[in-house]
Amino acid sequence: MKTAVICGISGQDGAYLARLLLQKGYAVCGTSRDAQVSSFKNLVTLGIRDQVKLESMALGDFRSVLQTLTKIQPDEIYNLAGQSSVGLSFDQPVETLESIATGTLNLLEAIRFLNQPMRFYNAGSSECFGNTHGEAADEMTPFRPRSPYGVAKATAFWEVANYREAYGIFCCSGILFNHESPLRPERFVTRKIVKAAVSIAAGGTEKLRLGNIGVARDWGWAPEYVEAMWLMLQQAVPDDYVIATGASYQLEDFIEAIFATLGLDWRDHVETDESLLRPSEIMKGQGNPTKAKDRLGWQAAYQMPDVARMMVEAEQAYQKGVVAL
Are residues 312 and 264 located together in one domain of the fold? Predict the structure, then answer.
């Protein structure tokens, strides 16, 4: 039986990854800064809370990281932790950089220190690319991040590349484009839209206030993106991969799909709120996942319209007291 450590197990990706690894027969350990008080709501929602061992670990503290890895002796480590909101990173740039870049560095240095055959996955981000002028980004596209979050993720990416080349550690980064699910927190725009639309369809009278709906993103389905993470650590040689659907849609298209699923015209319910505009914005994000398809055998099964429909169905079920994830 393999043992996996998931840093950031309480988030969307961490919970789905935990479920996947349990299905594959892994012993799964999740870490949190204080596992004694964390609710691990997503694990409870997926019905796997009791199947996961939980440990307290502060990623910003090297000694804490070293002690935890020494205790668990994992075969695989998945680093999904750190401040996860692009918008919030403009308000909390220091916390964002430290939680992502320093946390990643501490994990890599602990692996090097222990000198054990641990395989390491790092959660990269399409935010590293910045604006690519309409071109689909692949693994050779230069990084030009436009947010503190993107800067932090780019820093962590190069830390991983450095430790792979300098010390021969099996470590890789998955450069994931946007991937959504019902487990997204409501501060993420996709979940915000879905929840508001379902509420309006049920008779609510509120208006949905959004920032720039002209931005375009490559949206996928989170439960299948975590499989790509696992596949990266099963390869003979570590490498970095872009994970995406390969198709880009404007946020307006996503909004329209959500409201249309509910038989509504989005234009009757959406207003622009300039306070939600970001200081700098990526106008179009699109990935080229050819390498992942060719080498990992991974390909997205769901596109944005599918994601919109499944999120609406899950939200409707949730509001009726049924979990559909």
Answer: yes
Mark whether 131 and 175 lie in a shared domain.
Answer: yes
Residues with catalytic function: 125, 127, 149
| Confidence (pTM) | 0.94
Q: Are 272 and 215 in contact (CB under 8 A)?
A: no
Considering the domain architecture, whether residues 126 and 267 belong to the same structural domain is answered as: no
* Angle between helix 304-319 and helix 189-201 axes, rounded to 10 deg: 60
User: In tens digits, what is the pLDDT along the chain, a chain of 325 residues?
Assistant: 999 999 999 999 999 999 999 999 999 999 988 777 788 999 999 999 999 999 999 999 999 999 999 999 999 999 999 888 888 889 999 999 999 999 999 999 999 999 999 999 999 999 999 989 889 999 999 999 999 999 999 999 999 999 999 999 999 999 999 999 999 888 889 999 999 999 999 888 889 999 899 999 999 999 999 999 999 999 999 999 999 999 999 999 999 999 999 999 999 999 988 888 778 788 899 999 999 999 999 999 999 999 999 999 998 888 776 666 6
Distances (CA, A) of 278 to 87, 99, 217, 233, 301: 7, 21, 16, 35, 31
71 and 209 inside one domain: no
In a domain, 292, yes or no: no
